[in-house]
Amino acid sequence: MGETGTAGDPSRSRLWRRGWPWLIGLPAALGSYATALATLPGEEWWRYPAAAASAVAAAGAIVFTLPRDDARQAPRPPATNAAPRPRVVVRAAAGDTTWAAWLTDVLERSGRQAVWEQWDERPPGPRQAALIIVIVSAATAAWPTLLAPSGPHLYVQVEECAVPDGSAEESLLSLVGLPREAVAGRLLDRLDALAPADGPADRPELPPCPGLDSAVTNLPPRNVLFTSRADVMDHIGALFLGPHPLTAPRSCAVVGVGGIGKTQVAVEYGHRYASHYDVIWWIRAESRVQVIDALTLLARRLGVPVDEDPGVTLGALWRALGARSRWLLVFDNAVDAADLDACWPPLTNGDVLLTSYVRTWHGGRITDVLALDVFDEADAVAFLRRRSNDHRTPAATVRTVARALGRLPLVLEQAAAYTQESGTTLAEFERVLHRQPSAAPLLSQESWYRPEMTATWGMSLERACEQQPDARSLALLLAFLAADRIPRALLSEQHAGALPPPLGERLSGGLTVNALLRPLLSFSLVRADDHGDLGVSRQVQDYLRSTLDPAGHRRYADAAVLLVESAFPADPTDPESRPECARLLPHVLSAVRHGSGPSGTGESAALGRLLHRAGNYLHVRGDYGHAVELLRQSLEAHEAVRNGDRARLADVMTALGRTQYALAALGDAHHSAERAVRLLTDVYGPGHPRVVRPLLLLSRIQREQGRFGQALETAHRALEVTVLAHGEEHPDTADCLMVLGDAQRRRGDLDAARDCYRRALTVREGTEGTRPIDLATAHKHLALIALDQDEPSRAHDRLVQARALLTAAHDETHPAVADVDNHLGETLRRLDRLGEAHTALRHALAVRGPLGDHPDVVGTLIRLGRLHRDSGALEESCESLVEARRMAAAAMGVEHPYVADAECDLAETLVAQGDRERGVEMLGAAVACYERAYGPGHPLTAAARERLDALTVPPSGR
């Protein structure tokens, strides 16, 4: 929206590409220049340099404006004897500053003098002008009246909205629906008739107009009944559209109790100030999972490659947003700052708006916290009248209703909906309200809401049930799902068998979903969005659950679990099923949360299956922390089933162990994998192929724990079972050979490891449909053997081949490409190609960085530390290796060999810096660690011991 100029020339700054008003004159003119620019809206003046030039010229300075499309041309001074230019006043509300800046620019370029005024419902006094232009938008249409200016005037409508009463056709110009390239021409046609200007016959080149036609947005629809909140809108607008910080995006948290209107404020801001942004993206932020899903959708919308690792995707997304003009991210209903930390944009060219019931936000990310209060009495009365369309009830009675309902917007909305649907007036509602009980039958601890709210919801639900007896059952079921984006398809006949009675029988018997939903929608207990998805406010959900006794709570919690389990894809690892998994995941989390309370759930088997699938989905997405949490809960659910399926329990244990291994929680992973092997051996016997998968996982874990003998034994067992079941040329055999080769390499038997890798590569190359990543992995491991044998040239060739296979199938930011670059950087260092090595390692670190304290990041930091040392950058080398040592200890434990790997290289850097004593001490600690983990005869132990001996020999004895 309003983006101009060339975006692809990195040699110029953004301001240079857009054109810049250059000031020539005496130093005293600088004060006038700054004063003139201050009259323009925030920093938006640079979008329209001709308007900025006009402002400075009016201050008495001499300004030359470089043409926007070629900033290298010489400036052209203004004509000295030009005819007076017609004066045009532009009036715009606070939300239309970008439109005003564009319009001012067009006027100046077309030979007119533009004066810009910001105004509100009380317009400025008379102006001497050839024409007054008033920008009409949703911001001005919300005012009760829009007084016509005195003298010649033109209303310019820039959005779909109500136009001023009594405006004649000749005084109204609508730009709505016009192509962007045609808008300026249509405007000049009207200006030439109303305020002609002398100038060349050929019209000047004009900037494209702002607007929503090219915006990237998923903003919810605008609430046509949005009421006032002018102070809130002005506060956010001033914060976001004022001077921009240089180190972070501007951010504002709108906080307050549920139902106070936080989300509606964010929606209104997005629409009112839409022309300031070319990207506006709405993010449901109840959990980190939902935040990542929403940002992944934005990445797809922007054409950013999406990776299984969310950290890689976010890195690419931030680069894409950083290259754009201006963006707005809205995190709606955020709960935990930790969920946002990993998803916070590290950019400076955008804004972040956050809504939450949490009033305190720590960590320094939030620029401002704005506490929202209930409507004042006047706004509450105005809203009730507009929403209920009741203009008969006396104002005093309406005020009584507003006060009784606490002036809380959500309750006012549902009270007005009640009167509209029941055909009553607000006066009648007031009488009924006082006859209602002041609390629900059973209030849970989460029922923070006021008694008058429960009375309103109770009345609405009662009337809905009069129209549709099953409305209450449906509302209660929806109360156990997530509040937003409930797929309507969940209530289709396809899932009728999973619905609680009587809903399942009614749907199977021909009752339509729409017939069930109609009364709930009518009384605003349920809402529907433009895509047909359903939503229930969290406060209404809280209230509905509070009306249930423990048995009822358990019944509907079970129903929610069965319903979501029936719809969740059976194979979440299938890429084609992942969008549906992402859509249903919030409902999984909600059903699990409400089914794990004191009332519990009686559907433990279904709950376990659902959690297992959801955990596997999170694992393939790279969200290991949440995956572990769900898989543990799945394990507990399966263990709660008497005489349950032990094979299924073993599958959950294997999935849990795999995720714990990815998190470097080796002790927990070993326990899970070992238990899975025992369970499957008991069920199928030791020689069954079902035992192989947990065996391979167990071998990897044992290898990382330094138990090389056990790792070899376990891998051999898996290989024997697989060959016996499938033969030597089966893909599963290749997988076993790779794991066996890894164990042999870590034990120091390089020739045996190389033979395993070669056999695995031969099998994979001979198998049709082998994935490129599997071929690349075999080449990479053969390259590692070459490096271990001090043959960097041969390793380089293998790694280049592996990288070519990967980049033909994946983006450069794929984790497997980063893994190859990690080893390629080390190889290039050994070949003394230090510049190329630095590029490869920096790329690997950029992709892996979001993993945090992880062994993969440790390996890259160690290699980067070596490279810095070889380049003579000892301070940078020390920093990288100290961080690698800290990270390895945090991820794997202080006794893990990875800590010793970092200490060995850090010792060399310390010695190079002249700190021989500390270097010897650290290398001695590394040798002791290797001896405990690998034994005294291991190649790594021997190499470290040799380096230590060389340092401890006195100089005279060398």
Per the principal axes of the C-alpha atoms, what is the gross shape? globular
- Total of helices: 39
End-to-end Cα distance: 72 Å
Give the spatial strand order of the biggest sheet: 8-10-11-12-9-13
Rounded average pLDDT? 79
What assembly state would you assign to the polypeptide chains in this entry?
single chain
Number of strands: 15
The description of the largest β-sheet is:
6 strands, parallel
As a percent range, the share of strand residues is 5-15%
In which range does the helix fraction lie? 40-55%
Please mark out the parts with pLDDT under 50 across 5 or more consecutive residues, or reply none.
1-80, 437-449
- The helix-and-strand class reads alpha/beta
Using only CA atoms, what is the Rg?
Answer: 34 Å
